[in-house]
Amino acid sequence: MKGDIKMEQTTLNVKGMTCAHCETAVRTALLELEGVTAVEVHLQDGKVNVSYEEGQVSKEKMTEAVEDQGYDVE
Ligand SMILES: [Cu+2]
């Protein structure tokens, strides 16, 4: 039986997103990671809110996924 899944949230500061295409690329890359359940991109201030299952994915993995798309994570 699966235990209770605890949800966590984190915010990534992403540099270089300028348009809807960037937003989609970042959101899609993060949602492809196992454990990530929701992604909210705020283009103007470069903030990306990520909801994920505790212990299923690390901030390092999220950072890697975003950087693979060509954006910098602070
Ligand atoms: Cu763009």
Automatic annotation (TrEMBL):
<dbReference type="InterPro" id="IPR049740">
    <property type="entry name" value="CopZ"/>
</dbReference>
<keyword id="KW-0143">Chaperone</keyword>
<keyword id="KW-0186">Copper</keyword>
<dbReference type="InterPro" id="IPR001802">
    <property type="entry name" value="MerP/CopZ"/>
</dbReference>
<feature type="domain" description="HMA">
    <location>
        <begin position="8"/>
        <end position="74"/>
    </location>
</feature>
<keyword id="KW-0479">Metal-binding</keyword>
<dbReference type="GO" id="GO:0005737">
    <property type="term" value="C:cytoplasm"/>
</dbReference>
<keyword id="KW-0963">Cytoplasm</keyword>
<dbReference type="InterPro" id="IPR006122">
    <property type="entry name" value="HMA_Cu_ion-bd"/>
</dbReference>
<dbReference type="Pfam" id="PF00403">
    <property type="entry name" value="HMA"/>
</dbReference>
<dbReference type="InterPro" id="IPR006121">
    <property type="entry name" value="HMA_dom"/>
</dbReference>
<protein>
    <recommendedName>
        <fullName>Copper chaperone CopZ</fullName>
    </recommendedName>
</protein>
<dbReference type="InterPro" id="IPR017969">
    <property type="entry name" value="Heavy-metal-associated_CS"/>
</dbReference>
<dbReference type="InterPro" id="IPR036163">
    <property type="entry name" value="HMA_dom_sf"/>
</dbReference>
<dbReference type="GO" id="GO:0005507">
    <property type="term" value="F:copper ion binding"/>
</dbReference>
